[in-house]
Write the structure tokens for this entry.
Amino acid sequence: MRGFVIACLVALGVPLSALTVKPLSFVELVQESSVVVHGRVAEVRGQWTSDRRGIESLVVVEVASYLKGDLGDQLTVRVPGGRAGGFVNIIPGAPRFAEGDRVVLFLKTSGPSIPVITGTSQGVYRLSTDVTGATLVVPPVIEAATPPAPRGDPSRRPLSMAAFAAAVRGAEAAR
């Protein structure tokens, strides 16, 4: 089956590409990001890339607060992969979003272009609520650490929003 898929892609002239991501520590993630935003995903809209060789998603985020930088009450983020028309482009390692997701995003900006997520999935922290109703920030599964943090390690535990914001401020101050 795999050979059939590869043969079809070659026959169609679809370029095969890879996504390479440099592992980042939390401090590097904060320092390489020009914006750290906490918000809710309001819309996910797939579209063809400008060269029509792939699909990307535009993720509209309603901002609850900024932990670093400020881009207004609502912002749009560009993410590789997504759905456009009847086509789906899945990029391994790229984050996926759905309307209503609550997230903290680490973003890179460059001039007037649409921001992108720093370190792809490394720059996406999901939010959950504990039994008391407090918001918790959950680290991404592929967060880089040297050596990798073992399962159950305290650094892998969710943090309150206040503790997470303090960690972001501390990492930025370390610059």
